[in-house]
Each structure stands twice: as C-alpha cells, then as structure tokens.
Amino acid sequence: VLITAVEVYEAIKNLKLDKSSGLDQLQAEHFRYADMHLSCLLAMVLNAMLCHGFIPDKAMFTVIIPVLKNKKGLLTDKNNYRPVALTSVFSKVIEFVVLGKFEHKLRSSDHQFGFKKKHGSDMAIFALKQVIEYYNIRSSPVYVCFLDASKAFDCLNYWVLFRKLLDRGIPNIFIR
C-alpha cells in the first residue's frame, strides 16, 4: 500500500478550519496553509510508518472529554454524557488518508443510518414514519419493536470485525 502526496493533500483539505488546536498545539491552519512540500514529506512519513508497522504513541495520543448531553438531566448520571475525543491534527490527517483510500471498500446498506454521512437519526425517523403511514392508509396493523443497542460496542467481537475487514480487501497492515 502506497500513500501518495495527493492523498495527503486531499486529507489536509478535509480538515476543519477552527481555532482550536490539537493536543500537539498545532492547528489545521498550520497544515492547510503550509507549502505543498508538506504533503510530500507527510506521505513519506506515513509510508515509512506503514513499512515498519509502527505509529508513534504521540501521533495517536487521544484524550477523551465527557460532554453533557442533556443539561436538564442528572449531572451525576454517567449515561448523560457523550465522549468527545481530542486528538492531534496529524492523527486526523492519518484518519482522512486511510478513510479516503478505503472508503469504497466500506460501503454498507442504505438501511444503516448510524455513523454515515447523510444518514442520521432524522432519516431513520422519517423512514419509520413513512412505513407506518403506508400501512395505516391501507388499514393494516403495524407492529414496531425497538432495540436499544447503545452498549453494543462494549461486547463487540473484534476478531469477527477484523475478519470482515480482511474479507473486504483492507490490507493487514491497517488492521494490525
């Protein structure tokens, strides 16, 4: 797998330009407005990391910050918080490069609404309302069952996930 300077350049263009800095005190603007040679140098660094199968800990260091979901809810309820990950801008570039390179292999059904662009919960609610309306117009009973899978990732079998990624053609180096 070879990462090109063009892929790095495209990843840098995807960075959000906000005033917050990453954990390394660098901002997206540092990358965005740097000389074009930065993309070449970062591509060389990323290829070296892939070649050796090593990403420095500082490059992937993440701090998880709890953010309150509902201000009227209990402040002492751990379920009233959602985790937000603060990472370095460099790690975001790595993520965008990998996602850009393999996004076409990670396609899923249009019936999946979570963790996809333009497929939020509002779209799932709309689809549900449309199905209910369809059957109500035809005087047919509608039965709905809701499943709370909020803790599903706590018991995820990662070996099954790794196998599915391999089956879709994701190289071993990225899964490792």
Q: What secondary-structure arrangement, pairings included, does this model have?
A:
Layout: H1 5-13, H2 28-32, H3 37-52, H4 57-60, E1 63-68, E2 81-86, H5 89-102, H6 121-137, H7 158-167, H8 172-175
Antiparallel strand pairs: 1-2
Helix pairs in contact: 1-3, 1-5
Report on this structure:
It is a single chain. With 176 residues, the protein is mainly alpha-helical. Helices cover 45% and strands 7% of the residues. It contains 8 helices and 2 strands; from the N terminus they run H-H-H-H-E-E-H-H-H-H. It has helices spanning 5-13, 28-32, 37-52, 57-60, 89-102, 121-137, 158-167, 172-175, and strands spanning 63-68, 81-86. The chain has a two-stranded antiparallel ribbon. The chain starts with a helix and ends with a helix.
